[in-house]
């Protein structure tokens, strides 16, 4: 073999080795690229998909009542017209309107000139008859007079005594006293005016309890009457006073052409801080005794029926529900879920029945609905 042929043979061998090496490198690189492309898919296939969600814990609403907004005014618990018990002229009537008086306080005094004169005469006669009766008793003890003579004088003495004390009692009728504690609402007579027995002279307001009076139409009244536990929230602007009242006096008689029913809520007023005639804002709370779960609108799905996703053991469960009342923010759930269920409100992308989830945030949803 010549030298030239030997060199050509070696060169071909080297080229062959280089070709094989390059081919191996190309194959390895191709395999790595394929593996790198397939690895994420294999990882996803081998690991469950987890969807982050926010949930709300279903609870009964804090208030399940309907509210009717109206107005009213404060009234005295009772109005009492004070009468005189005898005939005479008003001598004293120094009672400013609105003044508070206690039971037994003197409200007015009638002129006592005539009764004082009669009492003076009766007292003189009574004392004189008493002396004669005592003198006759001494004579009787000495057997100087008959017993019948003594008895006659003693009867005259007792009659004079009774007349005297009767006039004293009658004088007390000239002093008109308060039959109860309260405020003077108005005076019906003036000083110097002649009054006769049973004439009214003063009107008193009993304010140890204050009534808040307001009206309801008949349908609302029936609702108020039938709903156990109903109550009233009031606000008196003049006193900046807010109260919750649950003690009522009601009348089922229509009071006007609108067929409204008169209702009075009662306020204890032992300190006399609340006066009659004040304007009152009234919220009538109708307690329907119905517990309701309310959810944000974002929790509700619809696909021929309403449903939500409830989370159990970090897994989404599709639950069919029935809904009731709704507003711009929330929906009443009548059936399908129960209190403390975790309901998805956001993170719905990719959500379906049975998917694993990661709870990122949990809130408590409780809605108060006011309706008028």
Automatic annotation (TrEMBL):
Keywords linked to the UniProt accession: Membrane, Transmembrane, Transmembrane helix
CzcB-like barrel-sandwich hybrid domain sequence ranges: 79-204
Residues spanning the membrane: 12-31
Listed GO MF terms: efflux transmembrane transporter activity
Stretches assigned to the YknX-like C-terminal permuted SH3-like domain: 293-357
Entry GO terms, CC: efflux pump complex
Domain of life: Bacteria
UniProt cross-references to NCBIfam families, sorted A to Z: RND_mfp
Family: Belongs to the membrane fusion protein (MFP) (TC 8.A.1) family.
This protein's name: Efflux RND transporter periplasmic adaptor subunit
Organism (species): Candidatus Tisiphia endosymbiont of Sergentomyia squamirostris
């Amino acid at each position: 073999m010549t030298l030239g042929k030997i060199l050509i043979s070696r060169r071909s061998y080297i080229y062959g080795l280089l070709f094989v090496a390059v081919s191996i490198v190309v194959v390895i690189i191709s395999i790595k690229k394929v593996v790198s492309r397939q690895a994420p898919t294999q990882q996803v296939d081998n690991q469950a998909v987890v969807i982050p969600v926010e949930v709300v814990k279903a609870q009964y609403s804090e208030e399940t009542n309907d509210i009717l907004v109206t107005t009213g005014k404060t009234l005295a618990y009772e109005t009492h017209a004070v009468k005189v018990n005898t005939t005479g002229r008003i001598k004293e009537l120094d009672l400013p309107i609105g003044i508070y008086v206690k039971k037994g306080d003197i409200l007015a005094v009638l002129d006592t000139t005539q009764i004082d004169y009669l009492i003076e005469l009766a007292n003189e006669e009574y004392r004189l008859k008493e002396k004669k009766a005592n003198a006759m008793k001494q004579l009787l003890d000495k057997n100087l007079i008959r017993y019948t003579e003594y008895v006659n004088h003693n009867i005259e003495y007792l009659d004079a005594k009774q007349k005297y004390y009767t006039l004293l009692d009658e004088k007390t009728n000239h002093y008109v006293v308060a039959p109860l504690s309260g405020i003077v609402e108005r005076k019906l007579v003036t000083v110097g005016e002649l009054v006769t027995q049973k004439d009214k002279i003063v009107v008193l307001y009993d304010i140890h309890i204050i009534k808040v009076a307001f009206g309801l139409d008949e349908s609302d009244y029936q609702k108020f009457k039938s709903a156990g536990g109903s109550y009233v929230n009031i606000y008196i602007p003049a006193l900046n006073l807010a109260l919750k009242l649950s003690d009522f006096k009601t009348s089922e008689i229509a009071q006007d052409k609108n067929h409204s029913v008169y209702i009075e809520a009662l306020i204890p007023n032992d300190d006399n801080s609340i006066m009659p005639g004040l304007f009152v804002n009234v919220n009538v709370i109708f307690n329907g005794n119905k517990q309701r779960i309310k959810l944000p609108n974002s929790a509700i799905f619809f696909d021929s029926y309403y449903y939500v996703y409830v989370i159990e053991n970090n897994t989404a469960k599709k639950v069919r529900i029935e809904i009731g009342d709704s507003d711009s923010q929330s929906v009443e759930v009548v059936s399908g879920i129960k209190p403390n269920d975790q309901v998805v409100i956001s993170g719905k992308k990719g959500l379906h029945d049975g998917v694993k989830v990661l709870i990122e945030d949990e809130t408590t949803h409780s809605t108060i609905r006011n309706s008028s």
